[in-house]
Amino acid sequence: MRRMRSFRAALAAAVVAAAGLTALGGGTAHAATPLPGRVFAPYFEAWTGESPAALAAASGAKHLTMAFLQTEAKGSCTPYWNGDTGLPVSPAAFGDDIKTLQARGGDAIPSFGGYTADTTGTEIADSCTDVSRIAAAYEKVVTTYDVARLDMDIEVDSLNNAAGIDRRNKALKQVQDWAAANGRTLQISYTLPTTTHGLADSGLAVLRNAVGNGTRVDVANIMTFDYYDNAAHDMAADTKTAAQGLHDQLAQLYPGKSAAQLWGMIGVTEMPGVDDFGPAETFTPAHATQVYDWAVAKGLNTLSFWALQRDNGGCPGGAAADNCSGIQQNTWDFTHTFAPFTGSSGTPADDFSVTAAPVAGSVAAGRTATTTVKTAVTAGAAQPVKLTVGGAPAGVTASLSPASVTAGGTSTLTLATTPETASGTYTLTVTGTGTTGSHGTTYALTVTGGSGHQCTAAAWSAGTVYTGGQQVSHQGHTWKAKWWTTGEEPGTTGEWGVWQDLGAC
Questions:
Q1: Domain CATH for 252
Q2: Is the dihedral of CA 483, 489, 490, 494 positive or negative?
Q3: Residues 420, 473: one domain?
Q4: 316 and 404 part of one domain
Q5: SUPFAM superfamilies, from UniProt (predicted)?
Q6: Contact of 447 with 423, CB cutoff 8 Å
């Protein structure tokens, strides 16, 4: 979506006065909570200097899609809000606002990319050629703001950058694996331009690449505006045909999903009033009501629009602008129509659980322990579940048979120890990853009579973020991080890498 620089000081002052700022920075620590089955999350233009929490309170929108995160310059691997080095990914930049949204029962969805980033090479996967660093940047956003969804706004030049598309999806797969290993709920949405009958080939290629990389796309969100086809448009009717076309395309990409599941992974983003093309593409409050009723009936996942700051009639008869809709309307007309969309979908999403029986065991060094890993359908229909195990110390080999089951099935976890395994108790994590998310369980293994030495530092975990000075144990050695890192295995980074070998435990 376009990023035009227009500051709305007068309206911002009125909003702040109306909503008050006493709540900002307040609230208690908030654990990431999954988004509702249906969510209305309009885009918030993060460069205007306004408070997202204050605008959310004034408008009635509980969830906001925060636009945008991008690098300062092409070639960088560090994202900033709007590419502004004064707005890094840190609690100091929007942290209090996001906590306030969460305390009110809403949340923020940080969005990477956008029109400006996608045309200047500063979209992070276009800018950075290191997949692990891209993944680390995504993880930092998740942990800094404790959010449950990241959005990828990919358009114009970024749609034609095949290397960037592949890096992005590979990095997202790493992040999804990290989230699963750490028990985090994390959704990924792709926001893409559309025709009136579905994605163009370039947008569809983004999703094809995700499938090829094993990257789960939770929401395919289409921008149902800016068609630029010189045709007359009924914007509500065009939204429906565009989404139907997307549904049919998704059916080819995900043949195992039902029609309801496919509609449940679709989002639409409108532009209130006159869009960038001009008056021939005008989305009215009456259109909004039609789209709302249709979206509820179809079971869509997400409703959004670009952008919250446009939802007012401050420039009737004007052209597209970031600070007003260009039509006659009341302030927040579109928000008030779409806001009730947020809530349960009414149809339970497919879900499952993972447990171990027994949950603990003791074995003499050199022998083998086993436990049964059970999966169960907790909602909806059964789905395929891939099982992985982490946390095994040096001298312990962990294997799962089978490594993939259908929810409701079981697997056997076998833990083979060697005589040199250090005595002690170790916690291993079994993670099940399905099409709708991940769940995990733990197993406590006690080893007795081993001749090895147990490391005192916590075992290294590929999904954990480490900062300079922190120590871990890995492969019988203690390692110290020299700087911030995640996903880089000790012993593989070389003499000048992030991990310093402190010697055998």
A1: 3.20.20.80
A2: negative
A3: no
A4: no
A5: (Trans)glycosidases, Carbohydrate binding domain
A6: yes
Q: Check whether residue 331 and residue 397 sit in a common domain.
A: no
pLDDT tier at 98, thresholds 50, 70, 90: very high
Please give the structure tokens belonging to residue 259.
């029609």
503 shares a domain with 431: no
Computed from CA positions of residues 158, 160, 161, 167, in that sequence, does the dihedral angle turn out positive or negative? positive
SS3 406: strand
Residue 182: per-residue pLDDT: 85
Rounded to an integer, what distance in angstroms lies between the CA atom of residue 225 and that of residue 276?
8
Please name which of 492, 494, 361 lies closest in space to residue 425, comparing C-alpha atoms. 361
Closest CA to 337 of 284, 385, 374: 284
How confident is the model over 124-140, as pLDDT tens digits? Answer: 999 999 999 999 999 99
Q: Which of 341, 368, 385 is the last residue of a domain?
A: 341
How far apart CA 469 and CA 401 sit, in angstroms, is 38
Q: Which helix (DSSP H) or strand (DSSP E) does residue 245 occupy?
A: helix 235-253
What pLDDT digit, counting tens, does each position of 409-441 carry?
999 999 999 998 888 888 888 888 887 777 778
Q: How far out from the chain centre does Cα 429 lie? A: 23
SS3 296: helix
Range of the domain at 449: 351-454
More confident residue, 70 or 259: 70
- Look at residue 1 and tell me if it is in a domain: no
Q: What is the CA angle 132-32-60, rounded to 5?
A: 120
Tell me if 272 sits within 8 A of 310, measured CB to CB: yes
3-state secondary structure of 339: helix
Same domain assignment for residues 337 and 355: no
Full-prediction pTM beyond 0.70? no
Which of these, 201, 127, 153, lies nearest to 1 by C-alpha position?
153
Based on the fold, state whether residues 389 and 493 are members of the same structural domain.
no
Residue 4 lies in a domain: no
The C-alpha angle with vertex 345 and arms to 342 and 351, in degrees rounded to 5, equals: 125
Assess whether 218 and 323 both reside in one domain.
yes
The domain tally of the chain equals 3
